[in-house]
Write a structure and sequence with these properties.
This protein has 11 helices and 13 strands. The chain has helices spanning about 20-35, 75-90, 95-105, 105-115, 130-140, 160-170, 225, 230-235, 255-265, 295-300, 310-325; strands spanning about 15-20, 40, 55-60, 90-95, 125, 145, 155-160, 180-185, 195-200, 205-210, 245, 270-275, 285-290. Bound molecules: adenosine-5'-diphosphate and magnesium ion.
């Protein structure tokens, strides 16, 4: 933690809660371009004084489930504590306590999605490495193994047979989820190798992006994550996708209304929701990202870069509007960012 969370003397602003500078860089630019006052709470570790009150402002939580991969093991726990404190003091939060609970647990996501008629792949949650094989037998092959608390495709393995699973579990490649929960999940085979990620800002549909999966499973759209992509030849020598992320023109889907109800019910204003459609066109939703990132190249190609319909542009405008509504006195004032 680099900041004093109880600096209450400051003028109201937007507070961005996160633990990864690289992902916030485009949001900083979007705030600056719109002259929206903001500050950042980098919540890797620190002190939260419950006897003090938080400052005035709008609080945007974009904590990531994969924080432990950046050596921020307890950042989500600290964020949950901070959100509880902000909630108690009646502060306006975008992506509140329910959002962080869902961010760190796919099981929690799936059970919450089910309430709104959103289908997810058949899944068994397993604690104890020795129990994975039995769970896999119960589900059948092929299957996907992955982490309950993930992001960045952590632990994602496609396993075609019991023998392949046994080899994987005995190898160094197997890694347990940071929360101890491994998911054994039905593999959804898409007729063409892509998934769709549907972006929402302020609870409203923004756009959908098609993500080419022929090169592997690490799918963070942020620029900063692209350098980690595995060499294409390793996974699929034939494929050489030049456009890994492509914004879908005029996307529409019957599930949009269901996803929106799910987001509203779980205090999530900003998220990217991922689904795969199988050969029958049946859609399976399998990941909710409350710290969503956007692919800048795809936005340039779609004519969105720098506008209010780019991902970070939409977020900045939305948060700026919430700030002006909650604190009308700051409207029109010359502002500087922190
Ligand atoms: N059940 C599944 N069937 C097919 N592919 C899957 C399945 N689950 C995950 N994947 C692939 O792995 C990627 C990462 O999985 P995901 O559940 O999104 O985890 P993360 O939270 O780490 O992003 C997905 O985008 C998709 O390409
Ligand atoms: Mg994902």
């Amino acid at each position: 933690m680099r900041q004093d969370l109880t600096a209450t003397s400051r003028a109201p602003r937007v507070y961005v809660i996160h633990e990864n500078d690289a992902w916030v860089e485009p949001l900083r630019a979007a705030f600056a371009a719109r002259n929206i006052p903001f500050a950042e709470w980098f919540l890797d570790q620190g002190v939260l004084d419950l006897t003090q009150a938080p400052p005035s402002g709008i609080f945007y939580n974009r904590m990531s489930a994969s924080s432990h991969t950046r050596d921020h093991r307890y950042a989500p726990e600290l964020t949950a504590a901070v959100l509880a404190w902000l909630t108690r003091h009646g502060r306006r939060i975008v992506n509140g306590e329910r959002a962080i609970a869902l961010e760190v647990s796919k099981v929690a996501q799936y059970e919450a999605l089910a309430k709104f008629g959103v289908e997810t792949p058949a899944t068994l949650a397993v604690v104890g490495k020795d129990n994975i094989a039995a769970a896999a037998r119960r589900l059948g092959f092929p299957l996907i193994l992955k982490h309950n608390r993930a992001g960045k495709g952590l632990g994602v393995q496609l396993l075609l047979s019991e023998q392949a699973l046994a080899e994987h579990l005995a190898s160094d490649v197997f890694e347990p989820s940071i929360d101890g929960i491994t998911l054994v999940q039905r593999y959804i085979k898409a007729p063409q190798p892509f998934i769709t990620r549907v972006e929402f800002v302020g609870g409203k549909f923004l756009y959908a992006v098609r993500v080419d999966t022929s090169a592997g499973f690490e799918l963070c759209p942020a620029d900063a994550c692209q350098i980690d992509a595995p060499p294409l030849a390793e996974v699929c020598p034939a494929a050489a996708p030049s456009d890994k992320f492509q914004i879908v023109r005029d996307f529409d889907h019957p599930l949009i209304a269901n996803w929106q109800k799910f987001l509203a019910a779980n205090d999530i204003g900003i998220a990217g929701i991922e689904f795969i459609a199988d050969e029958h066109g049946r859609a399976y939703t399998y990941d909710v990202n409350t710290n969503t990132n956007y692919n800048p190249e795809a936005e340039v190609k779609d004519g969105r870069a720098g506008t209010d319909v780019s991902g970070m542009g939409a977020i900045a405008s939305h948060l700026g509007a919430l700030l002006r509504r909650a604190y009308p006195e700051i409207a029109g004032r010359e502002t500087v960012s922190a």
